[in-house]
Amino acid sequence: MNIKGSTNIVGLIGHPVEHSFSPPMHNAAFAELGLDYAYVAFDVNPDDLKSAVDGAKSLNIKGFNVTIPHKIEVMQYLDELDEVARLIGAVNTIDFKNLKGYNTDGIGAVRAIEEVTSIKDKNVVVAGAGGASRAISFYLAKFGAGSMTILNRNVNKAQNLADDVLKSDLIGDVGADSISEIDSYLKDADILVDTTPLGMDPHINDEPIAKSDAMHEDLVVFDAVYNPNETVLLKEAIKAGAKPVYGIKMLLYQGAESFKIWTGRDAPIDVMQDALNKHLGR
To answer: Which is the catalytic residue, given 4, 57, 71, 239?
Structure first.
């Protein structure tokens, strides 16, 4: 990487960030297209978030990705929000040209799923009701899901998210229930989206949210966890003959969307995927 006085800096802010896969992915893409950009991860304490955004403006930084725990708090320091980021209530990408916030997490998941099946008119079951679920649920609705059921241990939280998605007028059928009832919903489901952290390294032997005997061959199963690549849930999906969608694809496609926001160029997806695989030792 040839960093010089003209190099445009983009990066990631979060706390912690040292295990992020984003720098190798983005820097490989910049190198492939010959763009004078460099991507750096910045560990920002929550108490320093405002000064980090102000400092980035002063330093002429071009863009940020935003990760835990800053996705909600950072919104108050931005001048503008993309429509879907406003609906979601969280930002994972900032473009400093106009200090505008976006959320590319949901589109990342949708693009990953749509490699395998169209979302339009499908019956989707979403496990979890946290930030990732919120981002993905709004995009599932935007891309034409026919119906959606949000399942969570805390049913009130699931119901609140379901109500918010319904209020967006992007979809007309959204329900909520306890995640303990998942087997009964999978019988008629076309797509299962797992946004829970179950099975994430180092807890790779967690009990999956659903077993293979509750799944059917036409079911598409997406797990937002990308480390390990084949989670306990995806192992069950493969055992059932269902179609797995890997979480690493969501990371890839959300990164590609951020790349385009900052540079105006389509991201070289294959190069970014190769960089991710190399970083993961695959």
So the answer is: 71
